[in-house]
Automatic annotation (TrEMBL):
<keyword id="KW-0663">Pyridoxal phosphate</keyword>
<dbReference type="GO" id="GO:0004648">
    <property type="term" value="F:O-phospho-L-serine:2-oxoglutarate aminotransferase activity"/>
</dbReference>
<dbReference type="InterPro" id="IPR015424">
    <property type="entry name" value="PyrdxlP-dep_Trfase"/>
</dbReference>
<dbReference type="InterPro" id="IPR022278">
    <property type="entry name" value="Pser_aminoTfrase"/>
</dbReference>
<comment type="function">
    <text>Catalyzes the reversible conversion of 3-phosphohydroxypyruvate to phosphoserine and of 3-hydroxy-2-oxo-4-phosphonooxybutanoate to phosphohydroxythreonine.</text>
</comment>
<dbReference type="InterPro" id="IPR020578">
    <property type="entry name" value="Aminotrans_V_PyrdxlP_BS"/>
</dbReference>
<comment type="subunit">
    <text>Homodimer.</text>
</comment>
<keyword id="KW-0718">Serine biosynthesis</keyword>
<dbReference type="InterPro" id="IPR015422">
    <property type="entry name" value="PyrdxlP-dep_Trfase_small"/>
</dbReference>
<dbReference type="GO" id="GO:0030170">
    <property type="term" value="F:pyridoxal phosphate binding"/>
</dbReference>
<feature type="binding site">
    <location>
        <position position="100"/>
    </location>
    <ligand>
        <name>pyridoxal 5'-phosphate</name>
    </ligand>
</feature>
<keyword id="KW-0808">Transferase</keyword>
<feature type="domain" description="Aminotransferase class V">
    <location>
        <begin position="5"/>
        <end position="340"/>
    </location>
</feature>
<feature type="binding site">
    <location>
        <position position="148"/>
    </location>
    <ligand>
        <name>pyridoxal 5'-phosphate</name>
    </ligand>
</feature>
<dbReference type="Pfam" id="PF00266">
    <property type="entry name" value="Aminotran_5"/>
</dbReference>
<keyword id="KW-0032">Aminotransferase</keyword>
<comment type="pathway">
    <text>Cofactor biosynthesis; pyridoxine 5'-phosphate biosynthesis; pyridoxine 5'-phosphate from D-erythrose 4-phosphate: step 3/5.</text>
</comment>
Length: 354
């Protein structure tokens, strides 16, 4: 049965990437050895790591602009503390747009003063705060570009001289932005890049080395940068698959090309949510994410029917996060437009039944 994978992460990856990755597990590019049984210091893996690092910068338009891309472990959650450990000397600002921001705030408080410059908590994070003022004495301002759980996404980033740190775990490589506005970007691989196990960190070198405390080697970005992301054994499989996915994206036409497809997918589902009285959207209209569409069913009695219809059509992974409920259709880069079409057809069929 053809499945339509709307999972929030880990999630759908391009079929050809999965095919090539599975072959490499048996034998990498005709070398007679598996990708996961060769040394990370072998010339084959060093080339893979270098390719992954350079593709990340190339796709983001950051080549030759003083940035370094590294692949670390510990998930995006490790970055909640690493960003603060490396950049927070006195005071940092955070915009609280939900669970992931809150977790980042909790870790940062271990390292210095944290100011919550804005929050949408009072409305269960249905919207993105705007027009807030940013104190000029912050070491950095931390943002979450896409709030996976609530389906909200920052459309306009603040103009400020304060360094910007951004958790882009759930929308990296999905839309065109001026990425040079950010001093540090991090993203767990398991949405638009690859399997869980690697986290991409893109950092402007000039912001490092400014804190007054000592940083343990494994948590020090400068150490990982100086060792070309090979300070210790990297997650070789996750880096390899991320490299393949970035290459897939580049061959497709890069972020500009995927953004167009992502916009079409998002428009398709949001028009249905707006027009169909059986469904109501969760996120504020102007802040709706092109990656995760969150919605509820207005008539509880139709829930079982809808679930059964989805199951029969091979739709997988659309249950909402436990803190929000309802449904969430995650439409990451590799999800074809056709899958959104199948979901939308079911939604409109349900309206006729209701
Ligand atoms: C925006 C965002 N940040 C952070 C995380 C945490 O990622 P990890 O599980 O890799 O630590 C997630 C996980 O879904 C996320 O969506």
């Amino acid at each position: 049965m053809k499945m339509h994978n709307f999972s929030a992460g880990p999630c759908i990856l391009p079929k050809e990437v999965l095919q090539k990755a599975s072959e490499a597990v048996v034998e990498l590019d005709g070398i007679g050895l598996s990708l996961i049984e060769i040394s990370h210091r072998s010339k084959e893996f060093v080339a893979i790591m270098e390719k992954a690092r350079s593709l990340a910068l190339e796709l983001l338009g950051l080549e030759g602009k003083g940035y370094q891309a590294i692949f670390l472990q510990g998930g995006a959650s490790m970055q909640f503390l690493m960003t603060a450990y490396n950049l927070l000397d006195k005071k940092a600002g955070y915009v609280n747009t939900g669970t992931w921001s809150q977790k980042a705030i909790k870790e940062a408080r271990l390292f210095g003063e944290v100011v919550e410059v804005a929050s949408s908590q009072e409305d269960n994070f249905k919207y993105i705060p705007k027009g807030y003022s940013i104190p000029s004495d912050l070491d950095y301002l931390h943002l979450t570009s896409n709030n996976t759980i609530y389906g909200t996404q920052i459309k306009e980033f603040p103009e400020t001289d304060v360094p910007l740190v951004c958790d882009m775990s759930s929308d990296i490589f999905s839309r065109q932005l001026d990425f040079s506005k950010f001093d540090l970007i991090y993203a767990g691989a398991q949405k638009n890049m690859g399997p869980a196990g690697a986290t991409l960190v893109v950092v402007k070198e000039e912001i490092l080395g400014k804190v007054s405390h000592i940083i343990p080697s494994m948590l020090d970005y400068s150490v990982h940068v100086s060792k070309d992301s090979m300070f210790n054994t990297p997650p070789v499989f996750a880096v390899y698959v991320s490299m393949l996915t970035m290459k897939w994206l580049k061959d497709l036409g890069g972020i500009a090309a995927i953004e167009e497809i992502n916009e079409r997918k998002a428009n398709l589902i949001y028009s249905e949510i707006e027009l169909n009285p059986v469904f109501s959207g969760f996120a504020a209209k102007e802040d709706r994410s092109i990656m995760n569409a969150t919605f509820n069913i207005t008539d509880d009695e139709l829930k079982d029917v809808f679930d059964a219809m989805c199951k029969e059509a091979g739709i997988s992974g659309i249950n909402g996060h436990r803190s929000v409920g309802g449904y969430r259709a995650s439409m990451y880069n590799a999800l074809p437009l056709e899958s959104v079409g199948v979901l939308v057809d079911i939604m409109s069929e349900l309206e006729k039944k209701g």
